[in-house]
Amino acid sequence: xxxxxxxxxxxxxxxxxxxxxxxxxxxxxxxxxxxxxxxxxxxxxxxxxxxxxxxxxxxxxxxxxxxxxxxxxxxxxxxxxxxxxxxxxxxxxxxxxxxxxxxxxxxxxxxxxxxxxxxxxxxxxxxxxxxxxxxxxxxxxxxxxxxxxxxxxxxx
Length: 156
Hints:
The chain is mainly beta. The chain has helices spanning about 30, 115-120, and strands spanning about 10-15, 20, 40-45, 50, 55-60, 65-70, 75-80, 95, 100-105, 110, 125-130, 145, 150-155. An 8-stranded antiparallel β-sheet has the order 9-5-6-7-11-3-2-12, with no helix packed on it. Strands 4-10-8 form a 3-stranded antiparallel β-sheet, with no helix packed on it. Strands 1-13 form a two-stranded antiparallel ribbon.
């Protein structure tokens, strides 16, 4: 009822529903080698990527395959939907939240046509990468388990 009184949560939620895996298991060296930062990944069973944290959407590229967020505490992260999806130039992706918008963890940000993308042979593994403001190693208790979009996987 009084949502404006709620304190920003430091928890990190799953960006999609599916099986949670270690970043090292992602079939792309840029992510698995943690070149961009540490994080985790989820192999999606659904078609909507949600905000993994409370914060501001600071970046959505024209290709709509990813979005960047920043929390009040200064933690920056990237949600990257699928591997090599930048090549699709936005095909199969619909933006649901605008850049500059403040969102809560669990709010839908991008919908993707999973069926179309899988038909094209795209690996839809979705990564959450901590790109700044949080240098701790990510080790989740839910690796190998099904997680639900918007549910906390890392307490803040």
